[in-house]
UniProtKB/TrEMBL annotation:
Limits of the Histidine kinase domain: 507-723
Class of the enzyme per the UniProt entry, highest EC level: transferase
Stated name of the protein: histidine kinase
Keyword Cell membrane belongs to the record: yes
Catalysed reaction equations from the record: ATP + protein L-histidine = ADP + protein N-phospho-L-histidine
Keyword Lipid metabolism: no
Record's GO cellular component terms: plasma membrane
InterPro entries named among the record's database cross-references: HATPase_C_sf, HATPase_dom, His_kinase_dom, HisK_dim/P_dom, HisK_dim/P_sf, PAC, PAS, PAS-assoc_C
Compartments (UniProt record): Cell membrane
Main location: membrane
Ranges of residues in domain PAS: 14-59, 253-323
Coiled-coil ranges (or none): none
Domain PAC: 207-259, 326-379
Amino acid sequence: MLKTKQTRCVTPASSGTLLTLLETLPDAIFFIDDAATTVYANASAQTITGATREDLCGKPLWRGAPHLVSTSLYQAVQKTKQTRAPIEVEYVSPVTRTWLHVQLSPAVGGLLLHVHEQREPLPRWETFVPDEHLADDVLKNLYVGVGCLTPEGILLEINEVPLADAQIRREEVIGQPFAQTPWWSFYPASQQQLRAAITRASRGETVRFETLVHPREGMDLHLEATITPHEEVDHHVEYLVYVGTDITERKRAEGATYALMDALPHRVWIARSDGSVTYHNQRLIDYLVMPLDQIQGDGWMVGVHPDDRPQVQEAWQAAIQTRGPYEVEHRLRDGISGAYRWFLARGVPQRNAQGTILHWFGTCTDIEDQKRIEEALHQSQERASALMNSNIIGINVIEGEQIVDANDTFLRMTGYTREDLRAGRINWRHMTPPEYLARTQQAHQELATQQSMTPYEKEYVCQDGSRLPVLVGGGVFQHHPLQAITFVLDNSARKELEQRKDDLINMASHELGTPLTAVKMQTQLVRKRLEKQSHHEAATALSRVEGPIKLLERLIGELLDVSRIQAGRLEYVRERVDLGSLLRDVTDTMHHFHPSHTIVVRETVQTSLIGDRDRLGQAFTNLLSNAITYSPDAETVEIDLSASEDAVTVRVRDHGLGILQEQRDKIFERFYRAPDLSQRAIPGLGMGLYIVAEIVKGHEGNITVDSEIGKGSTFTVTLPKRRDA
């Protein structure tokens, strides 16, 4: 078991005659042990300190006798303990304001202190005063808190500034642990800061820190504290010098500044002159989602993309060395999503009147959108370059009717040379055949009004007089509205293929039409003979063949119509047509072939127009057939007929599968069929709606479609009324 050495207080009753003699001496006598604990204090010592024997004995000298405590005395005690040689020291009591002359003598188990109080110093005595002794007249005139501490943190001296702030007397704190004084003990965090700083300083380190203290009720002060160790020749720390500067006003100003910076939409930071970051505004903290203590210094660098860290550090070091502005682009990680965004970091040094850098003020500006635009522009430039160098697409730049620039592909397609281009011998109007001139002028008018043209088909007259089928599109340059760029695709292969396909369709429809007509006539003839001979069952079976024959006949008819449309040979009869009567006839026919559906006709007004009755009947038959085909689970198809003073409108509405938005412009194309959303096998070649659109166009009308998936489609046909010729 460990045994703790007990300090026994010496009293006159316990030591006999010698101590009685000491009690009669006019000077104060103290005996302290090796730990500086008072073991004995005579009556004069009690008088000079104003304390009882119980107040003095058993306590450290620094705590029990604050009237005597000074840095000079503390140093003398330490030196006597080390050298074991007598020392004398003279100084002014910080409490009584009288001169004290103290003789220190080593003794068994401790030191004997003989304290003599006098009015004037004794010049003939060599006093022990350290170079760093804090003269009282200097201390009370400083606007900072200055103190002297033992390496263990016991307060030896302190000036009036902190005492006045705390409204306490010096003797209340001298000899006490500095961390337990009123202004330090109120905030545990500040108290811990001070204790940690004293521990570091006692090892020989100068420590600086900022903290908050509470001298008295209603008063908080921000301090910038420095604790500096005083070392002997052998580097042993003798005592610590504490300086606390009041920076409350600066902190308030900084607080107002920081509040303003927290309200800014920008991300703001401040760094010391050495580059260590001390502040980030709330917007930057919220973005990084990092604790404040982790961000400070260079901790914020963990949020920088690893690939960007070297260039950030290089730019920062260069700015510090050159004392010039700091600017670099880098990516910062969003602490919430984990994604990186591009920022532009800028910093400028703030200097005092002498040109010394006090700190750096900087911002981080989000440039993610700008970087995306730059990247998109870069990619666009690369694409434009690839496009201009394309050997597939011809590109030319026009100004008015003149082609002022072109890529090699366009020149090769049309047979012109770059010399022709430089000489101004390429003109789009001169290259356009008469039959395409109106459509070309319409495209250029569209280009002027809408800044772009819908791609259209035409032919160019090449330099050698040959013709080249092309597909042309283009747009206006935003930075040069008088110029436009057009893209030209060689369409000859497609035209040749279409011509072959049209020739095949025309030939096939004619070749199929003749034998089909013969089959149809023979079937009808045999059926009639069987009926006359009362072979009704056979006649009925044969009649079922007539349905598929009629379907084939209709498909061949549509093929012929497509062929005529492509050749521009689809003719129309001009006659007055009662549209209501036509729709009823079409409906009756469709009822016969599709008894599963009910067709409801709503005719709000009787109306007629000039047109081709058979062709219009064909168009509405195709629309009804399409409505019935694509509403297999519905039972009703509706037709609405209405009219205005100038036009007639027919709406065919079904309650079927519906059409996807992106397919609505394509369903009127030749041979196009919308995907079957129900996964059912619906027959057809994709010609019906193409023929409908051409017939409506042939009557100078238009057709549109509205649809919703799963709820059906509505086809609207608008036809102009015509007066009798």
